[in-house]
């Protein structure tokens, strides 16, 4: 193994397309040292097998008490990644606390409960497609697919699931977008987090006053029945995580899938002919252009050797999902190629884009259902839908956490009802 010193990779707070950096870093190895915003030293695990091992390793924790620099008071309050480290919920809990918090939420995401949401998702999808068509007619044949379709679908579903009124949803998307952003200043970061907590606090108070058949009401009932099961901070933290994970990931997934199909018309034609399924499109998009690129944070509880690289105890580590999805060692020499037949191939490596191990994404079945229904209905109604600008002209998100574009102008073409 080459033991010569390697200059740490400096994470770009402005984000951008991750794949060029991923390829360069993977050429060095499955693990890379990085410099996070604020000159914080960290690491990223990029290789598929190394990441799979790391995500399930018993000596890797999620709790912020294991983050050395944070524990020692060397991280500024307005650090743009602070929420990922300190929010109190499933993603920052370990052991019994993690199992306790996950069990309170998991009942809303069983296969049966998710399947019960199908008619509502189909109804909302049809309504949004009407809106996309109307927006294009009023915009010279062009509409932003993110604004009119890919965003309101998952936000509407998670909003109804949590009992969040429509009047809060646009603001919550704006605020969570700032939380996910990695390029905002300290004052803006602090203000966004405070307002997010305040809005969700108001939602929780409304549900406490007028409970409904929603997850927030159920969590409040669990808190009130037994204070040891859920604190107020954990309640709000859980809502923060559910809002972010419940719509940002699916929004990016739908957006990236539409981009991929528009850029690979032969693949789209195969699906429309029934030679591959819409579920295959979802899985290949998750692998090929993961909706989350580098997810914060995990911390080794001891000096840990990962694929030959020592990651010191207490280091904040990013999970490199977009890199692992194109790791040639796992997905073959054509890993950079979008291929909707790949998920059905014998021996095909399963992607890690929805996580692995104890923290595997609880909402994965819902995200898959939403994306599958969305793509099938979209391209069945608008089979000639195409991008209104070139892929090169699309502007990436200002985050190295989320992986997608800011807007997606499309020409839906003729509607086939």
From TrEMBL:
Top-level division of the source organism's lineage: Bacteria
Keyword Iron, does the record have it?
yes
UniProt keywords (A-Z) are: Heme, Iron, Metal-binding, Monooxygenase, Oxidoreductase
Q: Which residues form a coiled coil?
A: none
Alphabetized InterPro entries for the sequence:
Cyt_P450, Cyt_P450_B, Cyt_P450_sf
Any Pfam family the entry gives: p450
Fetch the PANTHER family from UniProt: CYTOCHROME P450 YJIB-RELATED (PTHR46696:SF1), P450, PUTATIVE (EUROFUNG)-RELATED (PTHR46696)
Q: Write the protein's name.
A: Cytochrome P450
Q: What is the lineage of its organism?
A: Bacteria, Bacillati, Actinomycetota, Actinomycetes, Kitasatosporales
């Amino acid at each position: 193994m080459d033991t010569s010193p390697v200059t740490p990779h400096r994470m770009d707070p402005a984000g951008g397309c991750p794949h060029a950096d991923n390829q360069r870093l993977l050429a060095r190895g499955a693990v890379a040292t990085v410099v996070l915003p604020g000159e914080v030293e960290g690491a990223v695990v990029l290789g598929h097998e190394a990441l799979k091992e790391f995500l399930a390793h018993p000596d890797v924790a999620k709790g912020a008490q294991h983050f050395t620099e944070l524990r020692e008071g060397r991280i500024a309050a307005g650090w743009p990644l602070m929420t990922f480290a300190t929010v109190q919920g499933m993603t920052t809990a370990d052991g019994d606390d993690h199992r306790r918090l996950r069990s309170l939420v998991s009942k809303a995401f069983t296969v049966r409960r998710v399947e019960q949401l199908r008619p509502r998702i189909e109804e909302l999808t049809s309504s949004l497609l009407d809106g996309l068509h109307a927006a294009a007619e009023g915009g010279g044949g062009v509409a932003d697919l993110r604004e009119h379709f890919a965003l309101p679908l998952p936000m509407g579903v998670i909003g109804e699931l949590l009992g969040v009124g429509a009047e809060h949803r646009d603001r919550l998307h704006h605020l969570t977008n700032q939380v996910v952003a990695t390029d905002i200043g300290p004052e803006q970061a602090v203000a966004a987090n405070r307002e997010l907590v305040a809005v969700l606090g108001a939602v929780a108070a409304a549900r406490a006053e007028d409970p409904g058949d929603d997850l927030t009401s159920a969590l409040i009932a669990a808190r009130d029945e037994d204070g040891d099961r859920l604190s107020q901070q954990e309640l709000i933290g859980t809502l923060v995580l559910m809002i972010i994970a419940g719509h940002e990931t699916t929004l990016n997934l739908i957006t990236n899938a539409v981009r991929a199909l528009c850029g690979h018309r032969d693949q789209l034609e195969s699906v429309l002919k029934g030679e591959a399924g819409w579920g295959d499109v979802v899985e290949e998009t998750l692998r090929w252009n993961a909706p989350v690129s580098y997810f914060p944070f995990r911390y080794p509880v001891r000096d840990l050797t990962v694929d030959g690289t020592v990651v010191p105890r207490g280091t904040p580590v990013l999970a490199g999902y977009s890199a692992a999805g194109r790791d040639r060692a796992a997905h073959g020499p054509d890993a950079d190629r979008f291929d909707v037949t790949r998920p059905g191939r014998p021996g095909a490596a399963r992607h890690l884009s929805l996580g692995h191990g104890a923290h595997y994404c609880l909402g994965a079945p819902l995200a898959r259902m939403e994306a599958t229904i969305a793509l099938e209905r979209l391209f069945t109604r608008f089979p000639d839908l195409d991008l209104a600008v070139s892929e090169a002209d699309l502007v990436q998100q200002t985050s190295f956490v989320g992986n997608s574009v800011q807007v997606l102008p499309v020409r839906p073409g003729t509607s086939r009802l």
